[in-house]
Amino acid sequence: MSAPVCEARNLRASYIPGMPIVFDISVIVDAGELVTLIGPNGAGKSTFLKALAGLVLVEGGEVRLGGQRISGLPTHEIIAAGVGFVPQTSNVFSSLSIEDNLISGGHTLPRSLLRERVQRAFEHFPALADRRRAAANVLSGGQRQMLAVARALMTDPRVIMLDEPTAGLAPKIVHEVLDDLRRLAKSGVAVLMVEQNAKAALRVSDRAYVLVEGRNHMTGTAADLLDNDAIAEAFLGFRRKS
Ligand SMILES: Nc1ncnc2c1ncn2[C@@H]1O[C@H](COP(=O)(O)OP(=O)(O)OP(=O)(O)O)[C@@H](O)[C@H]1O
Ligand SMILES: [Mg+2]
């Protein structure tokens, strides 16, 4: 059996050495899968993604990408190894043009490949192509997320991680962004996202993990979690039966 695209095993991570926020979280994401992390505010979801990207201190456990250990490497090496990260805020440069945002996402690539990838991004996201020379701050919230994703895809990551990609978007746009991510997973990338719009996210996801207080609380197929009364009540904001 080949190793999964991305596997975090018993990860422990902190901002201050010896004071973990993520105590013990294990998550697997494979090629073609859309996996969602849900859980209450302060559960450590964002910290967990940052730990995978090497942006916070990993104090225990490990992260493997296609079987190779990447935890402990500096962020630029983690990204070069095949991890894309779209943080919740400041994920595009507002004053740069759309094209320059894409170029900045691929600044480590050789020039010819960079041009090819910018072209590819415009083919995947035609709405961006139409306005390539405009500053990113003219984009709507949904288009901005599209640009952030397109930017992270410039390096052809094997796994792309997104922190609340639909935060602050109108409901109709939430579904558009989630559908885009579904399509992205279908193209073969492993997609791992944190979502507050848990119900909408689970509807497009394959599997999900519920994280509470820096630990795994529950995991299953997205359909099973949507169907689970306790989860629905605690995390999805509705009660199925009275
Ligand atoms: N830069 C930081 N330095 C120190 N502590 C931090 C930092 N960022 C977050 N924390 C703490 O880590 C804990 C978990 O935060 P985190 O942002 O990972 O949670 P979350 O599950 O993403 O929550 P939310 O749903 O609100 O986004 C919180 O108690 C928070 O105060
Ligand atoms: Mg968060």
Automatic annotation (TrEMBL):
UniProt entry tagged with the keyword Transcription = no
Q: SMART domains per the record?
A: AAA (SM00382)
- Tell me if Transport is a UniProt keyword of this record: yes
Q: Which molecular function GO terms apply here? A: ATP binding; ATP hydrolysis activity; branched-chain amino acid transmembrane transporter activity
The record's section on Gene3D superfamilies has:
P-loop containing nucleotide triphosphate hydrolases
InterPro entries hit by this protein = AAA+_ATPase, ABC_transporter-like_ATP-bd, ABC_transporter-like_CS, BCAA_Transport_ATP-bd_LivF, P-loop_NTPase
Q: Name one GO biological process term.
A: L-amino acid transport
Q: Which UniProt keywords apply?
A: Amino-acid transport, ATP-binding, Nucleotide-binding, Transport
Write out the similarity annotation: Belongs to the ABC transporter superfamily.
> What is the protein name stated in its UniProt record?
Branched-chain amino acid transport system ATP-binding protein
